[in-house]
Amino acid sequence: MSPEAHSAPRSLAEALRARDDSSLAALLRSRPDLVTPVPTDLTQLATRAGTRASVLRALERLDRFALQTAEALAVAPDPASYDTLLGLMAGDAGDPVVAGALPRALHTLREQALVWGGDDRLRLVRTAREVLAPSPQHPSPTGLGPTVQEATSGMSPGRIQEIVTTAGLPSTHDSVSAVAALTALFTHRKKLARLLAQAPEAAREVLSRLVWGPPYGQVTADPAAHLRWLLDRGLLLPTAPGTVVLPREVALHLRAGRAHRVTEPLPPAVVPAATHSPRVVDATAAGQAYTALATVEELLKEWDEGGPAVLRAGGLSVRDLKRTAVALDVSEPVAAFWVELAYAAGLIASDGEADERYAATPAYDEWLEQPPAERWVRLAQAWLAATRTPGLVGGRDAKDRTLSALGPGLDRSAAPEVRHRVLSLLAGLAAGAAPDTESVLARLRWERPLRGGRRDGEEGRREGEEDLRTRLARWTLSEAELLGLTGRGALSSQGRALLGAPPAAHSGPSAAEAPGTGSSPGAGPGAAATRAGTTGTGASGHPASDAPGHPAADGPGDKLPVHRHRVPDRLVPLSGPEQAVAGAEAARLLAPLLPEPLDHVLLQADLTAVAPGPLRRPLADMLGVLADVESKGGATVYRFTPASVRRALDAGRTAADLHAFLTEHSRTPVPQPLAYLIDDVARRHGHLRVGAASAYVRCDDDALLNEILADKRAAALRLRRLAPTVLAAPTDPATLLEGLRAMGYAPAAESAEGDVLIARAHAHRSPPRAAPEPVPDGPPVPDATLLTAAIRAIRAGDLAATTPRKPVGEPLAGGELPRTSSAETLATVQAAVLTGDSLWIGYVNAEGAASQRVISPVRVEGGFVTAYDHTADEIRTYPLHRITGVAELAED
Q1: Exposure of 301 in the CB half-sphere (CA atoms within 13 A)
Q2: Which entry of 203, 596, 716, 791 is 20 to 30 Å from 61 by CA?
């Protein structure tokens, strides 16, 4: 028998009043909406806990078995005993698994203030019963219909008596006793079984179709004989013209007492689909992590001089997303993921100019200076916490508008919780185990059945469309692989450390035999960041089930039998210093697995250079100016062209600089064709000078200018000679430069002083921008300090509201403040100062808010009373004119 059974609270407020502080803290932690603002007393807390919005939010966070328990209570008598509830959950035959899990589910419902009362009088809060109880408009998930009493509420007394008589019961003097007799018959298993044994076969077939719901059916004005037999005995009751319903008592008899067709007391196991060597998993994930860094860098280089324009409604246009996908050589959904990831990490933002464009932020330059492993941690942590959902890009919103990357409407508050939970389930498997996707989705649906099954508020569910939570889980699995948190579907060591998870269970090769994994993540500082949920119970009060794992194997795709090992059922998301420590540990594990940047390339005679691996940043930046990337992969191929060499010369490099650079960084001799290319472009570079006339061309060789004037391709430039060595054009210098280069010349720009301009790449940056804030999924969970203060205030307010006091004049209605005259108030307070007694006062503050308090007056002077306020637990001063009245506390 539970402790609640020994007391008999008359209301939810009394049940809460009997709780200790730790139990109240658990309630406020599981239902944070109850603490904002802090209730004045336990009566207000109970009232708030029974509001529809709060109850619906609490029901959404129940797992399937706890929700099934609440649904069973909604169709049980009010109040119901524990044995009645157990019968509804386990059926007449009983179920030891259900019987073992039911106390924990009931504890969850009590802890969240959805159920109160002892085991002999269990009560579901009224709002929850209204939500979960069956009705014609809102059928119950149990498939049960109304009771006999509810179904006959509008039936004539004569018809009720006819049903009672036909059912073989004696007639009664009133409808109430007749309905009670019919209910007693339908709840008596043996008597009802004898009655059903007399039913025609067709009638029993009708009942079998209605028994598991929906319990409603249609009949004609002249029903068939077998339907008439059921109607005459009340086994089917009319609810509207042409509509009948199977009474709840009859359905429960046919179901052998079970409220649900399938009861799910235990969460479905996450089944491994394949297993790989932990070393292979970590190496694969590290390779993908490096690719993620390279992809984000390439994206930002594309937008370095100013990215795509911002749409009027916000976000990228479809055309710009396609261009970005082509530049990154990925599909459009994957391009949307990388763009959103960079945005979530604060690396790109709108520049805020009149011609608004996306650009890298100053934080991007700081990010580039960090070691690769730390840069990856920043991306991964930003992804874990982001509420923006790239998978929605290309879909439609509630107004049938296309959702664009970086645009509004992509935030889904459930995304961080789903990502963390999916990765936590992966962390519960053995090292190297890749889960079966459907088993992960089944587990998530069990843990949040209402959230998984309801309509998405923003989009609306279409027939055959998966719910949002399921889609978020699928996107999590694919995005984690893209980002390098997982490798071959299994959680990597660095991903495990980033979550603050304990080391994976190894069966087969030990950690020492898998050098690719590095040291155990639990051995370093990341172990201090591990925050596992209580191993005894999960978030919903259920015992932490041992997540399934499987032995590690050397080859991918090996199907192996499931075995169990002990892991925490839930991992709490890290925050603050713990998150920093976990990130440092993840970076430490990842760093040795990333390839070392190279300081050399291999030059080839076909005017290409091969980078056999990642290059150090100065070398990569310079080579990116001097040559064009021709292909990527394990090795990057760069091609030298006249245009690329001219680009390097425009950036201020000389031919000698380029020769020295290639000689220093090439493991092979500089090929003669490349040397000739550089010298030839440099020889012609700057021979022509372009300035502003609007624009002009000057050259010491007037024959070359004559050649340009005679060229038909120069007609569009409208050149005219100003002097033997100067040509002018009515166009801007940039257009003139491009036109001459298109004709095969290599002009150089010059300043107003006649100096050659160095055309360095202009890195366009947005003003400093903060990363987008995640959209919270409801009120934040209160921390320990707020919980302590809130409980203290609630207890003090409850003391003021419930402390016995002596009567003052007329009896006061519940919650009404005491009323005394000013003279009586002053005299009572002065007397309390002399005697040291405590008083109950009504007080109205400057904002007009009324409250009741228990005070111990210390001093009265100048129209103010200074007293120790038991409600606030501190010394306070109150103006006497704001005290509505006083009352002495009862001596007991």
Answers
A1: 15
A2: 791
Whether the Cβ atoms of residue 888 and residue 806 lie closer than 8 Å to each other: yes
Question: Rounded distance, CA 391 to CA 479, Å?
Answer: 10
The DSSP code for 215 is: -
What is the per-residue pLDDT across 619-667, written as a single tens digit (0 to 9) for each? 877 887 888 888 776 678 889 999 888 888 887 788 888 888 888 888 8
What pLDDT is attached to residue 714? 86
Q: CA geometry: angle at 180 spanning 189 and 259, to 5°? A: 45
d(C-alpha 449, C-alpha 134), whole Å: 18
Contact by Cβ (8 Å): 131, 59: yes
Residue 345 tokens read as 């990490």
CA-nearest of 692, 745, 746, 699 to 721 is 699
Residues whose CB is less than 8 angstroms from the CB of residue 295 and which lie 6 or more positions away in sequence, other chains included: 328, 330, 338
Contact 700, 730 (CB under 8 A): no
Structure tokens of 76? 């049980």
- Using CA atoms, how far apart are residues 305 and 471, in angstroms rounded to an integer? 36
Tens of pLDDT, residue by residue over 193-202, are: 999 999 999 9
CA distance 756 to 758: 6
Q: Quick one: what percent of the chain has pLDDT higher than 90? A: 34
3-state secondary structure of 728: strand
- Split at pLDDT 50, 70, 90, the class of 856 is confident
Furthest-apart CA pair in the chain: how many Å? Answer: 128
Residue 890: other Cβ atoms inside 10 A:
11
Which of 279, 275, 277, 284 is CA-nearest to residue 516?
279
Cβ-proximal residues to 258 (8 Å cutoff; 6+ apart), any chain: 88, 89, 90, 91, 252
pLDDT (0 to 100) of residue 753: 64
Contacts 24+ apart (CB under 8 A), 205-212: 206/230, 206/236, 207/235, 207/246, 207/250, 207/254, 208/254, 210/246, 210/251, 211/246, 211/251, 211/254, 211/255, 212/143, 212/255, 212/261
Q: Could you identify the residue written with the tokens 């924990």?
A: 104
Q: What is the C-alpha to C-alpha distance for residues 487 and 491, in angstroms, rounded to an integer?
A: 6
User: Whole-angstrom Cα distance, residue 150 to residue 74?
Assistant: 14
Query: How, if at all, do strands 695-698 and 726-729 pair?
Result: antiparallel
What SS3 class is residue 128?
A: helix
- What's the pTM? 0.74
What's the DSSP call for residue 667? Answer: S
Classify 516 as helix, strand or coil: helix
Is the pLDDT at 547 greater than 50? The verdict is: no
Write down how long the chain is.
892
Token couple for 283:
């190496």
User: Which pLDDT score, from 0 to 100, does residue 344 have?
Assistant: 93
DSSP 52: H
Q: How many helices (H) and strands (E) does the chain have?
A: 34, 27
3-state secondary structure of 874: strand
Answer yes or no: is pLDDT of 515 > 60. no
d(C-alpha 452, C-alpha 472), whole Å: 11
Q: Which residues does 744 contact at the CB level (< 8 Å), separation at least 6?
A: none
Q: SS3 string of 635-704?
A: CEEEECCHHHHHHHHHCCCCHHHHHHHHHHHECCCCCHHHHHHHHHHHHHCCCCEEECCCEEEECCCHHH
Q: What is the pLDDT of residue 693?
A: 65
- Two structure tokens written together for 339: 């763009």
Q: Name the phi and psi angles at 819, rounded to 5.
A: -125, 120
Q: What is the pLDDT of residues 116-161, one digit of tens each?
A: 999 999 999 999 998 898 877 777 888 998 999 988 888 888 898 9
Q: Contact at 8 Å (CB) between 485 and 427?
A: no
User: Can you tell me the distance from the alpha carbon of 416 to that of 774, in angstroms, rounded to the nearest whole number?
Assistant: 9
Contacts of 448 (CB under 8 A, 6+ apart): 60, 61, 63, 469
Q: Where are the beta strands (DSSP E) in 530-660?
A: 548-549, 563-564, 602-604, 608-611, 628-631, 636-639
